[in-house]
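Per reviewer request, we include the raw input and output of the structure prediction for the construct analysed in the revised manuscript.
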Amino acid sequence: MDMLDLIRAAQDDGVTIETDGDVLTIKAPKSKSHWQQKLSVRKQEVIAALLGHADPPPLSWPEPSELPDELPPVMPYSSDLLPPEIGAAVDDIAERMQCPPDYPAASMLVAMAAVVGCQLGIRPRRYDDWLVVPNLWGCVVGRPSLKKTPATKAAEKELRLLESRDEDRLRDELNEASVDELLLPERINSMRSEIKKAIKNNDEATARSIAEDIQRLSEMTPPIPRRIVTTQTTIEKLIEMLSRHPAGMILFVDELLGWMRRLDRDDNAGVRQDYLTLWNGIGWINSDTISRGENAARNGCVSVFGCCTPGGLSEYVAAAVRGGRGDDGLVQRLQITVWPDQTIDYQLIDRWPDSEAKEQLRTTFERLADIDPSAIGQTDPDNDDGIPYVRFDSDGQRLFDEWDIRHQRRLRQGDLPEAFESHLSKYASMVPSIALLLHLASGKKGAVSGEATKAAICWAAYLETHARRLYSVAIAPERQHAGPLLRRLIDWPEDQPIRASVIAKRGWSGLTSTEKVDETLKLLEDAGWVRSEKVKPSTGRPTTDWHVHPEALKFLQMLENKTAETPKTSTEGTFWGFDGSASGGTPENGKLQEMFI
């Protein structure tokens, strides 16, 4: 059927077709709307036929360009990032659970920070008094099927075992203190009788001595086993616990996004600021309420760790980038954020955990819990924080200084999104923190070694790629949705017009608003996969119809086959290991910036 026959068939079906220059108006009854889509696709041919010209050749479509990666690439995790005492356990957990090793690795690192807390710090400069407490916040990102929570529970379990060990160690003292508490009232009553006798005999000295003994007995407190983990608490209770457990604690939150959104509420504005302070691990924080009285935590230190889904966290970060409530540095404090690639392959691994790796892990955490900060570090009599500290050794200082100079110069170029720049700015304290933790976990004392500093710098390079994935998706979410939307549009019914409002009503992931759909369609249009057309319907306002490249399926399959044939980059030798080898090294900063282009 040629174009004129097609036009006549539409008119016979009650469709009105008019043309005014290059403007085509098609008025079709609601039940005949399929004609509008069928004729709109061949707009130029319809106009030419109505003007009496011969049918022009179909409108040409150039070959479309490749779609942007749905997710920017990230560095793969390597067990060389952690000492073998911990890396072996991480690899074992990842294999048995068939989850990305990034999950247990990130949780272990933050758990190590919680154990050390504010007991020991590091001064990253050779002479300066700038002090860094190795406190870390972290988050693992992935779909529910990736077993995020089970993979991170192993780290929480090690902390719970430390708490139980401390309770067992103090059990006899606690029992004795419990008996003393029962006897205390009677002892005080008896001593008060002695005071009365002394006063009656005008023996003031004896009376005062007994009164001082009563005061000492009343002020005696039982030993307090250390608490490390909390999963839900008010800020007032948290500060009270920190006053009793000054080494610091960790808040393990399964749904981290829910916790952050609760902090967004107006009635929690003060709580949010308190958590931002507790990330520093230095300084006083007070809670003075009528019900709880006066509570203060000196050098209050709280680590935070949890899990998030990609969509929820991306939307939250996007709001922070746009200057919403989250634009205060809370998101940027989640330095140990990992968003690894999802593995397609799955194998059933049903075996006992590696007992040797498990024992090494337990021993390492116990060693961290038993450090003697005053024996390891030195204190500054002119500084009132009272936290012992160490510095880098000569090799570690050289490596850190070289990295820090490059890092700070790069941040000052002003070519990074502001929120992402703020995130990277906190790496200046993160690298010394990780270096100190890895140094202690390896069983070493004294100045932090160059070996641990190398590994910490590699952690920074690795974590930056994951942060770039998060921020790039938040800044340009359409790149994540372009591919899935195109695949759906290829299968779109021919008799239904493609419109942003119709797509938004279908509730597809990430495409629930007309604005987001329009942004994604425009990205596809720029790449040559779709075209837009302004349409003036018979009733209502003008709208935009979208048309898919007629050979979209063929080109998409060609690109997918090309991608499948491209070998993956080897992960061997990517990082400096704890054995001192440097077969790979960290990537150049310029290459990392390509993910925002």
